[in-house]
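Sharing a chain and its predicted structure for anyone who wants a worked example. Both blocks are below, sequence first, tokens second.
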Amino acid sequence: MIQNLLENLYEKYKNNNDGNVATYIPELANADIKDFGIAIVTSNGKVFEVGDSRKEFTIQSISKPFTYGEALKTFGEAKISSYVGVQPTDEAFNSIELEPITNRPFNPMINAGAISITGLLFEKYGDETMDIILSIYSKAAGRALSINNEVYKSEWKSGHRNRAISYLLVNFNMMTEQVEKVLDLYFKQCSISLNSVDLATIGATLANIGTNPITNEEVFDVSQVRHILSIMFGCGMYNNSGHWAHEVGLPAKSGVSGGILAAVNRQLGIATYSPPLDFFGNSVRGIKVYEDLSKELGLHVFDSMNEGSNFLRAIIEA
């Protein structure tokens, strides 16, 4: 049933040409607007996919919750909360603004928060930081991932707004003064390449309480999963997160390359890829797919069909 549902959704939305590809990172402007993939991986390792589900794209902001999770594991919640808050914001993801009283970034899902988190990891691990980050993402995806060097170079050359954000953080002691080294890590992190099946597997790893359901390797501990899913639910869809929580009701994270990742606790990881974005920076086709999936399968966190649903479990186990 899931496979048929995905195929129907693909046919329903493949010709929807609303939205525009991201251009502020020049390399992303080369994306094919026709690319459209959907994948679901269940918490017992079954894979369903349709369309361009094996098409590679860069993870971009979808990386943020996982680097945040690693920082929590490394430093503890008390230290992290002194550098980055957890409040949603109506400001754009790349806004040059901090909390007015604490001078912290509002949350780790916007660029300021993500850069601050990367800076903390760099201070501890130095030149090993990227290897650690890439290893985590690879374990969650179930295969070795790599960096798209063309996108990385494009981000590095055009990333002046992120440099402005970084120097603001330095000014308020929210980041090390080694700005270019931290940004180099941040740009590389956002340029990690993967496909929709990889992304859905990462979601399934979260849904499976931190253990990759295909490789059976533990990637995140229980505390990390709770914090990662919580921040995704409240802040993961840029400044449209409130609408998403109301309409779709799933922890999720989007990226400006066109990917969206969501997790259904103990049940599913879901991923979509389609480059044209809406005003908020979220994939237009992806949003529509998730809205339909949430309604069709009762996935909303407050839907009575969700946790423990015999209907959904029967679909997964069939």
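Comments welcome. The mean pLDDT is 95.
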